[in-house]
Amino acid sequence: MSKSLTLLSPVDTVACCSPLSRQPLSQQQADQVAPLLKALADPVRLRLMSLVASHVGGEACVCDLNDAFDLSQPTISHHLKVLHEAGLLDREKRGVWVYYRARTEALTNLGTLIGETSA
Description:
alpha+beta, 119 residues
């Protein structure tokens, strides 16, 4: 009889975790959540995440984000790719442009993991 091992994405792992103030993360949970936090730990990516999440309509194109930085478009695209691969952004190609949308459930779950304190 084979045992199937279900691997959760970092976003799914955060959703399953109790707030840090309630119980400690297991080593496996910490290993899975760390990539999300690492993706947000870069100031450019943190700002990109904020710009996309707060953009009118809830999504933004790379062309909407270029002027906010003194960086090249390929560099901005790289940072957006890191956020996408971490599970924090969804993306959709339309013609020559790629539009990004924040995965608000991932942000909510991260907020709950970090922000809830015990009374």
